[in-house]
Amino acid sequence: MAKILIVDDERSIRNTIRELLEMEGYKCETAENGKQALEMSTKGGWDLVITDIKMPEMDGVELLAALHRDFSDLPVVMISGHGTIDIAVDCLKAGAFDYISKPIELNRLLVTVRNALDNSELMKETKTLRRKLNSKFVAEIIGESEVINKVKSLVKKVAPSDARVLITGSNGTGKELVARWLHEMNARSKAPFVEVNCAAIPSELIESELFGHEKGAFTSAVKQRKGKFEQAEGGTIFLDEIGDMSLAAQAKVLRALQEKKISRVGSDTDISVDVRVVAATNKDLQSEIAKGNFREDLYHRLSVIIVHVPTLAQRREDIPLLVEYFLKQYCNEQGISLKKITAEAVEILKQMEWTGNIRELRNVVERLVILGEDTITAEDVNSYVVI
Hints:
Blueprint: E1 3-7, H1 11-23, E2 27-31, H2 34-41, E3 48-52, H3 60-70, E4 76-80, H4 85-93, E5 98-101, H5 106-134, H6 146-158, E6 165-168, H7 175-184, E7 193-197, H8 206-211, H9 228-231, E8 236-240, H10 247-259, E9 261-262, E10 271-272, E11 276-281, H11 285-290, H12 296-302, E12 305-308, H13 319-334, E13 340-341, H14 343-350, H15 357-371, E14 375-376, H16 378-384
Helix pairs in contact: 2-3, 13-15, 14-16
């Protein structure tokens, strides 16, 4: 429930407003003047401030200016028993959400409170959406360790070409991010980047997913559908976890790479495709070839360039940079002030196993942002992170 601060030098008015709002389920606190209110507001957490104008030490207009300086999104409702139209206009120009004259009509106050809180929530949602829309689609490759610098250097060299790339590495190391940068730094960056998680698609559906199908090709094919290769025309198709692809689908992918043509399921017509193929796997494909699970000819087609992404344990010196990056990211997404983390807390994170690699670290930082205080301590890490 919303938290409301009521500021008035008259105790009876403060208590009347408080009782009314608490009956409606709001959580309320009171202050006698602007100075006391400002001191209380430094804690943050208020959703709305209702303040009188005429008060000793610091009046409501001064309080309004101070609150808008420090908490620009905090709605403020002004009340006064000495009001004029000019005062009301001045308050609204100064940033007040609304102005109510005394004696206060309680129904009018309740409507204003609801409107102010609804408007504030809408503004927060709008800002969150704008931050997401304005944020870079492709995150940075964070780190300055020797192993990650080798990866970044190789990506810069390979990206401008159309050479096929096989990205290897454990789950959660950032293989998809490398693939996106290979696309972003290429002349194809304006065209689609289409991702296919080969491990998540049932083997009986993978061909339809990749190459599309004609109407009536199978029972549920009620209309023609373009596959991922066609959707990626002119751009990049990213075949993630290609080591889990069926042998039948591998044969069709090999043909697509060799002839730059595909055919939809249920059709004999060839369709020319112009796509760059980037693949990734967490498996040892040489071992899979020996077991008969992966085609050797497809492996050689895909692995013109091999980019191996190291585990987080192999680049522990990058953990402080990654933690700082994820802290900024999640605080920004949630629209809260940037939280800090102590050196002792970071040191504990550096010593962890990180079997889930970057993905696990990102989840842990998000958890600490949600559960920790303004400064995340070693105690927070020990309390909220399973070591």
